[in-house]
Amino acid sequence: MGIRAEEDYQQLKKQIHNHVVERLDEEGVEVERVARQQLVAFIQSVVAQYIASHRIPMAAGELNQLSKEMVDEVAGFGPLEPLLADDRINDILVNGAEDVFVEVAGVLQKVQTRFIDNDHVLRIIRRILAPLGRRLDESSPMVDARLPDGSRVNAIIPPIALDGPSMSIRKFNTRHLNANELISSGSMTRECLDLLITLVETRRNLLVSGGTGTGKTTILNLLSQYVPRNERLVTIEDSAELQLNHPHIVRLETRPSNTEGTGRVSARDLIVNALRMRPDRVIVGEVRSGEIIELLQAMNTGHEGSMSTIHSNSAKDALIRIETLLAVNGYDAGEKAIGRLIGSSLDVVVQLVRLPNGRRHISEVMVLKPTSNDPYKMETLYRSDEFVELSSNAGEADG
């Protein structure tokens, strides 16, 4: 379809959508209450009548596709519906009306999906947020929310977003890869898995580190499966993504402020409360702010075997990031004291990378061996041959 033909089609969709909405109002059809089959039949009939009365040339297949898109517009999330239904897609990124990208198997790619215009994008964003009771307007132009199926959605609109409304959806995966699948896919070796199991069973405090989309939540899920069944776990997350196969677990989730700016419950609040719930281990989905203070203190005071993830590109960078988080969140101590806290609380950093082909991979497992001179001294417990080769090639290229 040429550019002009595509523009004409989008305008036709806009006209027909308005017409369908008018007909629904005239007939008193309540979309939320009517049976899906009845709604589909009604929309198909209205679309066919519109095409016929306006004498628009259209093949039967095109008419069926148009009717399906109208059903998605009225009862779903418009152009996003096919993407949300595709299990291969992990992330959906909307950069305005005409630029839609998806991530499949770790690789970002642009798709043919498009919206009519920026108002159309905004309408779909608001439809997504409506059941969640979240507001998005000029006075509150950013929102971060969780959909009923567990997917995370972030949206930002003008005037903050200069080129029109933008939205990103991290789809919730109901099925995480098990150990054998991760080994088969090359994400880890059997040697690495055996090491990780031993670390969990011996109650080492673990930090899973990696960049965006490297599979930190998948590894945290995997590690948690090897916690002894007689232990009590408390998990704390911004958006509930962990699916732990464990008989004794309490799941806590943070809450943002309401429209009046009150009612926020932070991860830091939840960790403080979790320590009063007699957990054997505390598992924090991701540390990104002041909760790091309470988590390190928990790791240091009888909650061995606790775990979390952090955004960082290397094991050493992860420790430096923790140091920074402590400093900016009011942990009032000198450099030496901060180093001692981190060195005595954390035992192991599991570093993840994403290879150029998109595959997620455990690159190394580092154990902390703090000394008086170097609280961040680390030794390698495991390093993948693939990562060593990749690092070596990168070094040669830089040279």
Automatic annotation (TrEMBL):
The keyword tRNA-binding does not apply. InterPro entries: AAA+_ATPase, P-loop_NTPase, T2SS/T4SS_dom, T4SS_GSP_E_ATPase. Keywords: Plasmid. The keyword Transmembrane does not apply. Pfam families: T2SSE. GO terms for molecular function: ATP hydrolysis activity. It comes from the Bacteria. Residues 202-356 form the AAA+ ATPase domain. Belongs to the GSP E family. This is Type II secretion system protein E.
